[in-house]
Write the C-alpha cells for this entry.
Amino acid sequence: MIGTALVVRLRVNGHTVRRLVRASRDAQPGDVAWDPVRGALDARLLEGCDAIVNLGGVQIDRRWTSTRKREILDSRTQSTATLARAIRAMKRPPRVMLSGSAIGIYGDRGDELLDEESTLGDDFLASVARAWEAAAAPIREAGVRLVLLRTGVVLSPNGGALARLLPVFRLGAGGVIGAGRQWMSWISLHDHVRAMEHAIVTQSLAGAVNLVSPAPVTNVEFTEVLAGVLHRPAFMRVPRIAIEMLLGEMATGTVLASQRVQPVALTASDFRFVDARLEAALTRELAG
C-alpha cells in the first residue's frame, strides 16, 4: 500500500523509479528481479541509483503463531540484509537508503511521551524492529546516509487498520477497544509518502525518524472522530478479554498497546504536515 503510493508520487514529481520485484509475472520494464529469502540480488543492476527505499515485510495482522512470528521477523531482516550486501558491493552506492521500521520498537508505554531518543521496548514487535534496524547498520558503515522509518498507524481506506475498521463503522457497529485509553500514533498515507520523499532529499535527516503525526489520540478519541466523519454511531465496546481471546499475543502487541509518539526529527527538519489533525486526515483519505 505505502510503496505503491510512493512510486506514484515520485513518478508524478519527475523521478525515475525502478521496482524490486520477486515474481516475474509482476515485472514491468525497468524493474529489478531479486529473491530476498535466498539473498539474491545483482548489485550491478542498482548502480547509478540515487536512493533505495525498502518497506518489505509480511503483515502483522494475523494471529501470531510461532511460524507467523518467524515470517514477520525473517521477511524484514532478510530483505534488509540482502540490500545491505548489495550496497556494500556497489562501485557507486546510493546517496541514501530509507529502511523500514515501526514505532512498535518502543513497546507498550502507556501515557509516556516518546521520541527518537526514547528507550526501546522488549516485547515481540520491539525485538523485530530492533533486528530490522540492526540489519540495516552495514549500510551506514558503507558511507550511505541511512534513514530508519519508524512508522505508526498509516491511515488509508486501501489497506491497513483503517481499511479493516471501515466496514464495521459504516454499519454503525464500531466502538472502543478495551478501556480505550491506549494511545494511537497515526499518520495519513498522504503525509507518509510526502515524508519519505522529504527524507530522500533532506541531507540533515539520518538515523531514526518517527513517521507519525504530531497529534496522537487515544482509542476513545479515534473512535469518536472516525464515527463523526462517517456520520455513524459508535456505541459498541469490545472488552479487552474478548480481544485477547480472539487474537492472542497479537492483541497486546497491536490494538491494545499504547504508544504516544512524537515526530521530533521530522519536524526539526522543517517538514510540514498537511494532515496534522485526525479529522482532516480521515476526511482527506476517505474523500479519495
